[in-house]
Every structure is written in structure tokens, then in C-alpha cells.
Amino acid sequence: MMNVTDELKSAETKQAYDEFATDFQKLREDITALKADLANLTQQSANDAKSAVKEGLSTAEDHTREAVETAADELQEIQKQAERAVRKKPLSALAGALAIGYFVASLRR
């Protein structure tokens, strides 16, 4: 037979075990919630990084496109100026072309 002291210890042990089981279950729920929060945070960070990269690429593409358009415009202007210069002084242009050709040929030797 159990005496009163043994019964109290048994009741206290059961109560402590029940509290431990409850705390352990809460801990498991908190860990599960933490994992979900961490997964969401990771996904959000990945999405933010992806958006930043896309925006940076778009900006770089825009700047590159503008630079190419500017260079093309400048080359067209240089071509027009060269054509005007050749039309005004065709013999000088021919002499200049021959001089450049001779100079390049001498460099290759």
C-alpha cells in the first residue's frame, strides 16, 4: 500500500510530467513556426535580391542602349562630315587616303 507521502510524490511527478509534456509540445509548435518564418524570410530575401538584379540589369541595358545610340549618331555625323570634305576637295582626300595607305603599308613591313 501507498502511504500519503508516496501518493503526493506520485501526484507531483504526474503534474511535473504533464507540465513538461505541455512545454515540450509548445516548444515543438514554436520550432515549427520558426521554421516557417525562416522559410518565408529566405524566400522574401531571394525575391528581393532577384528584383534588385533585374532592376540593375534593366538600368544597365538602358544605359548601354543610350550609349550605342549616341555612338551611332556621332558616327553618322562623322561620316557626313567626311563625305562633305571629300566632295569639297576630292584631290586632297585622295592624296590623304594614299598617304594613310602608304603609312600603314610601311608599318606592316
TrEMBL record:
Name this polypeptide is given: DUF883 domain-containing protein
Membrane-spanning segments: 90-107
Record's keyword annotation contains Transmembrane: yes
Superkingdom: Bacteria
Coiled coil: 24-88
UniProtKB keywords: Coiled coil, Membrane, Transmembrane, Transmembrane helix
Keyword Coiled coil included in the entry's annotation: yes
